[in-house]
Input
Amino acid sequence: MNDTLIVVPTYNEKDNVRDVAKAVFNGIPAADMLFADDNSPDGTGRLLDEMAAADPRVHVLHREGKQGLGRAYIAGFKWALERHYEFIFEMDADFSHDPRDIPRIREAAQSADLALGSRYVGGIRVINWPLSRLILSRGAGAYVHVITGMPFTDPTGGFKCFRRAVLEAIDLDRIRSNGYSFQIEMTHTTWMLGFRIVDVPITFEERRSGQSKMSSDIVREALWMVWKLLFRCGLRRKPRATHPRSVAAGGTP
Ligand SMILES: Nc1nc2c(ncn2[C@@H]2O[C@H](COP(=O)(O)OP(=O)(O)O)[C@@H](O)[C@H]2O)c(=O)[nH]1
Ligand SMILES: [Mg+2]
Output
């Protein structure tokens, strides 16, 4: 049984899903993938069913309609927790996240509770982004740091690996955000619970095919969310104690 699951949310990614699965399994043959598709109008769901029929490592969650990336991930995490997985990844379908980085992130997660792919640790590694998007991303990172105290270099990043204990410790039904703020909320909740988080350098490349679903609503949601996170934990800007199930406490095998 594979202990690693790569959860990939999809919305209109028919040109990417076959290649992305191939690239993932090239790097890590002993892993499973779960695609969470929101009934993509372009037929991604049907294609995924064909892939799942041909390869037992591929699984598909069909969801009713477009509900946002956060909802798709929460459904995927619950699916993973109902099964035996120990290492649970988030990854985009559009090759912005390089599947070849998976083994390195997984390795980092051996001694961490959450391994966070970071575009900005030790320099900027982003390919084909307009300057405006880079400024937005860096600005968001600085904003999160100043308000919440969270020390990680890329808090809006979505290429990461959770240990099972983290997802079990989080009340997943309380995670309500969807876009970038979903990433911030997940990482902040993990951190405040006292889990060990490490940055892992990755190179991010803008998608080559299909369309980004980034919007001004997503940015607005994130601006608010950061304040909500601060108030939710009584204005605390660092965790109280190591979580008993953290690898740092010897909690996870
Ligand atoms: N299931 C699901 N996936 C989504 C949704 N919105 C975006 N995605 C997927 O989430 C990943 C990142 O989205 P993308 O549009 O590339 O965002 P960007 O990289 O921030 O521009 C891709 O795999 C998308 O297909 C959604 O509403 N539902
Ligand atoms: Mg993208």
User: Anything to note?
Assistant: The chain has one domain: 4-249.
